[in-house]
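Dear U.,

Please find below the material for section 3 of the report. The protein was modelled together with zinc ion; I have listed the sequence and SMILES used, followed by the predicted complex structure.
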Amino acid sequence: MVHRRPRIAIGLVLASLSVTSPGRGQPRGDGRQPGAPPPLPVDTSEARLLLRELGPRFGATYTPHFTILSDCGTEKAIALGELGERVLERILRFAPKLGLDAAPPRHRMAVLYFDDWREYETRARAAGIANAAIAPGYFDERSRRCVMGEYSNSPPVLARRREIEASRRRIERQAAEGDDVREASRRILIREAQIKVGEENIHRTVFRHELAHQVLAEYGLERGTPRLRTWLHEGLAMQFETDDMPNGFRRLDYLQAPRGSRSVPMREVVADARVLAPDHDDSAQAYASAWALVYFLCETRPRALGAFLQGPTESGQAAGALAEFEAQFGALDGEFERAVRRVIEGSR
Ligand SMILES: [Zn+2]
């Protein structure tokens, strides 16, 4: 089964991410933070196989826990690997709070990163993602690999760039005719900067989300049946989409449902995984509810959540997702939702 992404609005602002090079192809030796997890061995036969399959444009770049197979160039591949390292560190700090022990995988986690959008799209489509433009990355649960596309090469971003180019040419003509174009030029620069920030945010939030799925699965922190627990699976990955906690984007989505969109009751989000399908009309709000619910459980009942993550009870699983939830955490009613809202409102 393949994980899919929900819609994410472009134009969100996120603190800038510093890209530090860990040294090409080498684990960070002395530069590693004290207490940082030890590097994992490289699965050289997997890397070789993948490189043969992907073709000569692709190369392998390594960070201590990830193997990035990419045609995007070393700098971008390292930036992606570093993002993965940060997600991993966050998750390893988070696990003990829930009483969970992370069990490292045998090898570095593989991430495929495509510069060529059509190639990414073809792969995503084969994995069941109908609209790659809203999902520049996914975690393939079967191969346990992340697959990412370079969003700046996607049709929506290229179309926006073409619009800007057309506006620029128009302004040049007007300037040649002696018009005052300072205001228009300023607007174009702002628009360009917005697009760039939007692209970076999409990369970071989507990539971090998918990397979180990969780390949670590979370090054995999520057992049970993901299909029955989509709310938990997604809610957990969303905790790691941003550098800081709580996730400001999801928090805003939860507290201020955009006009015309429906806030989705948590009961429904837990009971019916279909509201979390990316093509569902209310998916953005359903994701926000799942994020809020998991954040609440992490903050108020971390040990119960940890036990729940270690595997479903037989009876709970047979009775369905909602019964399984309520057996562990109590009735998911209006009272419960109000308690969640109070915690989220007070979380900043
Ligand atoms: Zn997900």
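For the text of the report, you could mention the following: The chain has 13 helices and five strands.

Regards,
Y.
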